[in-house]
Amino acid sequence: MFTTMKFTLLLINTIVVVAAAHLLDPKSIEKKEGNLRSVGDPLLTKTLVIIIGNLRGGEKAWSSLYENYLDPSTADLALMIGKPRAGYTNSSITKRAKYYWEVDEYDDWADAIDLIDGPGWRTSFLAPIREAKEKEPWDEIGNKMGGHNVLGGIKGILGSGAIIFMFRWFLSQKLMEFNLVEKYDRFVITRADHYYSCPYDVRQLDATKVWSPLGEGYKGITDRHLIVSARHVLTALDILPHMISNFNDYADCLLAPCNPELVIARRFEVGGLEIDHFPRTFFTCAAEGDTPSRWLQPGKLLEEGVLQKYPHEYVAARTNCQRL
Q1: For the chain, how big is the Rg over CA atoms in Å?
Q2: Buried b (16+ CB within 10 A) or exposed e, 250-285
Q3: Residue 248: its H or E element
Q4: What is the spatial distance between Cα 62 and Cα 51, in angstroms, rounded to a whole number?
Q5: For labelling alongside 242, which of 25, 44, 119, 161 has CA 20 to 30 A away?
Q6: Taking the CB of residue 228, how many other CB atoms lie within 10 A of it?
């Protein structure tokens, strides 16, 4: 039988904490308070899967996330996203998330970068890149000069690199604000529009390394999916601030043909992070009505009930799942 004191302690330990927090004055909610991380057996470690960017992919993709990724890894889910489109406001993924943060969208993401350490970077960092652009104009897709996609999202620069890196900065602030680095052992930083073709437990991977799926690295490290320990997660997210503070370390990339994947690889190299790769068991997809991508548009309808994005990803995921 429970004593009154025991019952009271049990009740306190099971209270769900709902906290309102503000990130750039958007809606920001920690839906539940996480428990302290486990120690000892690697299969008992606590994992937080974090989806950043826009909600895309739809319910079929998200069902595969729950069944084939979150559940096998006994992982919690966090969302750091732009405002969902109408059809996704009350979707299963927003209900499944333990942590939910909305980030404002910017017409010019330079305004967001000002939040890191003021506007001084516009002179010390952005101006040299603008000057290089004037000397040798970028082509129609922005691939001729560096900074084209590395800083994509800044007014006049194509691509989405600045957006990708700012979401990581926003996330780093939330991990520190809610002390999540102390509550979880491992973090998966990914996006919503992945279809997971078969069960995969991320806890089987060596926690001392940073893990990336094979493929889509574009001579660097893919920005679509990353598995990293609590020890290294803040370094792995510290891309744009480090780049701004250490221009010379990235100058060859910023002033020459480059991409976000190469910048990530450079940052990890400078930070001493050891990278390894695991077989891809998921592929990028889309659903009807999704927010348009800045790059590739959806292709044919697959038997999984989602639209195909990158055919080689789909083949790799299917092939690897047959081998596992």
Answers
A1: 20
A2: beebbbeebbbbbbbbbbbeeeebebeebebbbbbb
A3: helix 247-254
A4: 11
A5: 25
A6: 23
- Residue 99's contacts (CB-CB under 8 Å, 6 or more residues apart) are 29, 30, 31, 32, 48, 76, 77, 78, 79, 174, 178, 180
The string over 158-191, giving b where at least 16 C-beta atoms fall within 10 Å of a residue's C-beta and e elsewhere, is bbbbbbbbbbbbbbbebbeebebbebbbbbbbbb
| Stronger pLDDT, 171 or 155, i.e. the higher one | 171
Residue 211: exposed, middle, or buried by beta-carbon count in 10 A (0-12, 13-18, 19+)?
buried
- The residue count for the chain: 324
- Dist CA 33 CA 296 (whole Å): 38
Instruction: Return the bridge partners of 118, or none.
Output: none
Q: Is 208 exposed, middle or buried (0-12, 13-18, 19+ CB in 10 A)?
A: exposed
What is the mean predicted confidence (pLDDT) over 234-249? 96
| pTM of the entire predicted model | 0.84
